[in-house]
Amino acid sequence: MWSKSGFSSSAFCEAALVDMYAKCGDVPNARKVLDGITCPDTICSSSMVACYHRVGRYQEALALFSRMDKMGSATDQVSKMATGGAGPAPAFSMLES
């Protein structure tokens, strides 16, 4: 895992790892890195939301998005677009303004 590889625990490295695992479709490792971050930022969380959306895990994506909103993360149009892909998923139709 990332801590055993010698990566520092800087926010930049953590965000890059979440994004890399997410883009590779490696949901378990992306989530493991995200869960290990003390204060995940919007970029990390949005990468994970997009990962869940990409692999069809819409309920988990919606749950994380809702958690971000409750924690005060910037869940603006950019965050919503991270879930978009080719079109809105059924679970995300309620996010439309």
UniProtKB/TrEMBL annotation:
Q: Which UniProt keywords apply?
A: Repeat, Transit peptide
Pfam families to which the protein is assigned, alphabetical:
PPR
Repeat: present as a keyword of the record?
Answer: yes
Gene3D superfamilies assigned: Tetratricopeptide repeat domain (1.25.40.10)
Under InterPro entries, the record lists:
PPR_At4g14850-like_plant, PPR_rpt, TPR-like_helical_dom_sf
Q: GO:BP terms for this protein?
A: RNA modification
PPR repeat start-end pairs: 41-75
**MF terms per GO, please?**
RNA binding
> Which PANTHER family has this protein been placed in?
PENTATRICOPEPTIDE REPEAT-CONTAINING PROTEIN
Descriptive protein name = Uncharacterized protein
